[in-house]
Automatic annotation (TrEMBL):
Keywords: ATP-binding, Nucleotide-binding, Transport. Belongs to the ABC transporter superfamily. It comes from Mesobacillus persicus. GO terms for biological process: peptide transport; transmembrane transport. NCBIfam families: oligo_HPY. This is Peptide/nickel transport system ATP-binding protein/oligopeptide transport system ATP-binding protein. Residues 1-246 form the ABC transporter domain. The keyword ATP-binding applies. GO terms for molecular function: ATP binding; ATP hydrolysis activity. The keyword Cytoplasm does not apply. Coiled coil: none annotated.
Length: 318
């Protein structure tokens, strides 16, 4: 609820004192049991930082995070509830300790949370290896002996060790060969169906979250600018930024294929110095004069969608 991550930067920068980089600036999001919320946006928009705060790897500087109605901000709550929240990282090469055996890597969360005896943990590791499609004899090997896709399977096994309820998947397939990506996505879906897990699935491209997501949140410069059911987002995108992202994706319906491609000009502004008013106004193809002054709120635009754009502020849905 309204989570923020503001990093202080040296005073005097940009001629202002106590200046902050607003990496995440007021994100609110609900994730229900068994569903996948895709979180998309360009590099540097704050999506990974949001994911890290959700699982407790980073503390928000404002706002609150709730898990099953309980506030997670306090240290004690984090310790007791934290095992429900796990993360799968983008880079399967750097997220596994090369000096540890696969069995020790996967058992590490169990050791940290003091779950089971050594032999019970080993049994659990074998089950987890099989769950992710690897034979249990792999437990005595080292990460270097595995391919990228296999290493991501190990990362998934480690994330499943404590039987979490929510996994934040931070671009889990973008470092993998295209031929391997579908295998890993299918594995994640299968596991979700078996365990009733929820995912917050982070990616920079909207197409990458299309198949796995139930709902999609689009981030721009630290804020969610559109949040909708997947079908609605793809069929009826409202925010000009979402429209631009989608116009770059080939449409499955041939009649829709020659719709106009919206090319955004200009780079993503720095979150250290975001534009005033609507932060998208410097690149928005339909920006109006008031967009330079007024920062739009994320408001309902239908039963299934929220949009932060002045074009919709007077058209709040029924
Ligand atoms: Fe574009 Fe204005 Fe809407 Fe921002 S508020 S997205 S600048 S039209
Ligand atoms: Mg990232």
């Amino acid at each position: 609820k309204d989570i923020k991550k503001h990093f202080p930067v040296g005073s005097g920068l940009f001629g202002k004192k106590n200046h902050f980089v607003k990496a995440v600036d007021g994100v609110s999001l609900d994730i229900y049991p068994g569903e996948t919320v895709g979180l998309v946006g360009e590099s540097g928009c704050g999506k990974s930082t949001t994911g890290r705060m959700v699982v407790g790897l980073s503390d928000p500087t404002g706002g609150e995070i709730y898990f099953e109605g309980k506030k997670l901000n306090e240290y004690k709550a984090k310790k007791s509830l934290g095992k429900n929240l796990q993360m799968i990282f983008q880079d399967p090469y750097s997220s596994l300790n090369p000096r540890m055996t696969v069995a020790d890597i996967i058992a590490e969360p169990l050791v940290l949370h003091k779950v089971g005896t050594a032999s019970e943990r080993r049994k659990r590791v074998d089950e987890l290896l099989e769950r992710v499609g690897l034979a249990s004899y792999h437990g005595n090997r080292y990460p270097i002996e595995f391919s990228g896709g296999q290493r991501q399977r190990l990362g998934i096994a480690r994330a499943l060790a404590l039987q979490p309820k929510l996994i934040v998947c931070d671009e889990p397939v973008s470092a993998l060969d295209v031929s391997i990506q579908a295998q890993i996505l299918n594995l994640l879906k299968e596991i979700q169906n078996d365990m009733g897990l929820s995912y917050l699935f982070i990616a920079h491209g909207i197409q990458a979250v299309k198949h796995i997501s139930d709902k999609i949140a689009v981030m721009y410069l630290g804020k969610i600018i559109e949040f909708a059911n997947k079908e609605e987002l793809f069929e009826n995108p409202r925010h000009p930024y979402t429209k631009a992202l989608l116009s770059a994706v080939p449409h499955p319906d041939p009649k829709m294929r020659n719709r106009e491609r919206i090319i955004l000009t200009g780079d993503l502004p720095s979150p250290a110095n975001p534009p005033a008013g609507c932060s998208f106004h410097t690149r928005c193809p339909v920006a109006m004069e008031q967009c330079k002054r007024i920062d739009p709120n994320l408001l309902p635009t239908s039963k299934q969608s929220l949009t932060a754009c002045l074009l919709f502020e007077d058209k709040v849905a029924n």
